Amino acid sequence: MKLLRKGKVKDIYEQDGDILFQFSDRVSAFDVKMATPIPRKGEVLCRFGEFWFNALGTPHHMIKVVDKDRMLVKRLSMVPIECVVRGYFYGSFADRYKDHLSKSLPADFHPVLAGRLPRPVFDPTTKSEEHDLPIDKEQAVAMGLVSASDYDYLEKTSIALYEKMSMIAEKGGFIIADVKFEFGRDESGRIVLGDSLGPDEYRLWIKTDWQPGKIQDAYDKQHLRDWLIRTGFKEEIDRLANEGKKPEPPAVDPEIVSELSRRYILAYERISGEKL
Predict the structure, then answer these.
(1) What letter would DSSP give residue 251?
(2) Do domains 2-76+218-272 and 78-209 have the same CATH topology?
(3) Considering Cα of 96, then 100, then 105, then 107, what sign does the dihedral take?
(4) How many angstroms separate the CA atoms of 134 and 123, rounded?
(5) Cα–Cα distance list, 221 to 14, 51, 97, 176 (Å)
(6) The dihedral of CA 124, 125, 127, 128: what is its sign?
(7) Among 259, 222, 254, which Cα is nearest to 114's?
(8) Fold topology of 2-76+218-272
(9) E strand residue ranges, the chain
């Protein structure tokens, strides 16, 4: 088994012509890898990936789960954009709305923080280990990342998958505010769902706690991001970014670590209906 790449949260190996994902307990936020692991996070990511691949009924690259934190998948030629779908007015979507995204929604739309959008919005980005950048259809095609027809297919498929995920999550008492999908071409050239799907790829809120107009309590790694903002680490990231640097990651507060682990596990068990 050959190590191909150590990513932010998973290690990728080649195994007999296929790919093995080993999901770690590492966590990153604001494109900085934290020094503190989150217990059982890797197990949750692996099991959540298996659950969604089986539940969504769309072509994907998973072969099987071979251990609690390891998944064997087919090798794909990955599509070089990240397919983000927004269902709620939140996060970077809200930050960029006035300047870049107003054309995506009806002219009479009145944004409210954490409010549900009139319809899901496809909001893709470039792929980068450092920092993903928003991109539209015209840019994606001009840069040669995808053809116009492939872009349309990715948009339609991503929105349909988001809507199906939302219905499933709602039965478990959760709202998926937004999600990031990755796709790739298999050996026949067909575009299929790739990578994985878990709390690192979507923003998750408890439905009964949802209150438009305020910051939402997150059951994903936003809980960590909020702590980093409160402690001033996000300001340090922004300051050093102007110099092309990144700060050393802090030791995450033990209470944040424990609570984040609890939330990951709770989300999996409620949405999947399975005990971890």
Answers:
(1) P
(2) no
(3) positive
(4) 7
(5) 28, 19, 23, 13
(6) negative
(7) 222
(8) Phosphorylase Kinase; domain 1 (3.30.200)
(9) 2-6, 10-15, 18-23, 28-29, 32-33, 62-67, 70-73, 77-78, 81-88, 116-122, 125-126, 174-185, 191-194, 202-206
Q: In whole angstroms, give the CA distance from residue 72 to residue 7.
A: 16
Which position has the token pair 């027809």?
149
Which residue type is seen at 31? D
Contact 224, 235 (CB under 8 A): no
Structure tokens at 185: 């071409």
User: Taking the domain 78-209, which CATH number applies?
Assistant: 3.30.470.20
Domain coordinates of the chain in residue numbers?
2-76+218-272, 78-209
pLDDT digits (tens, 9 = 90+) for 136-190: 999 999 999 999 999 999 999 999 999 999 999 999 999 999 999 999 999 999 9
- Residue 178: φ, ψ to 5°: -160, 165
Amino acid at 103: K
The span from the CA of 151 to the CA of 140, in Å, is 8
End-to-end CA distance of the chain: 28
For residue 182, give both structure tokens. 């990755």
Averaged confidence pLDDT in the chain: 92
Amino acid sitting at position 143? M
What's the gap between Cα 145 and its chain centre?
20
pLDDT in tens, 27-43: 988 888 899 999 999 99
**Between the CA atoms of 157, 158, 161 and 165, what dihedral angle is there, to the nearest 10 degrees?**
-170
Asked if 223 and 259 touch (Cβ cutoff 8 Å), the reply is yes
